[in-house]
Amino acid sequence: MVTTECYRCKYRSTMFGEICCDYCWITGHSKLKLPKRADGGCPAFEDGEPLRVEVRPMDNPFRAVFIKGKKVTHEELLALYNRGLTDGEIAREIGSVKSTIYKWRHRNNFPANGKPQDGGSKYDYKVFRKLYDQGLSDTKIAQAAGCAASTVSRWRTLEGLKSKGVSGSAQILDRDRMRELYDAGLSDAKIAREIGCNASTISKWRLRENLLPNGVKTCRT
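The chain above was modelled as a monomer; its predicted structure follows.
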């Protein structure tokens, strides 16, 4: 967290266009080992002119990243990056976290993958609409388009379209078929599998219809 002291500390840096702490880079030590201050301030604070203000040069383009003691070379990271993988996908490949890949990418001045440079979208919303018109839910559309369901949900909201998810959406459920399966003695879970929805959807429908659950033993009084 940046405080007012950071703007006066000699360990300050502006390498990313904003104030950040350069103590570890300059000294080679972690601030965590320094004695804590009574007032709760930064233990590394020293008033003065910044010791380093220039952007760190990439004098070693093959600088490795260490993940839990395992060395991952620049070439290995670059190969994954050139495949078009995002920071999160690269992190999963090497067993790391996204922030580590983010820092490596910034050191090399690489733009993020997965973000269109022209400000457009990397998804074909025409495909979204085609699948939506076929009656697919957000989850099904996301699986077909290779994206997150939240992406489809945001697109649908911006388009002013109603959800076609099976949960709670009676319009796309065959109520006659549900009643037929219920009368046949099937439980909520089995009816849900036949219809292709969640068991909770069947339970809510059954409660609205004032129907008791099938397959549940009741105590005699």
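The chain has four domains: 1-56, 65-107, 125-159, 170-208.
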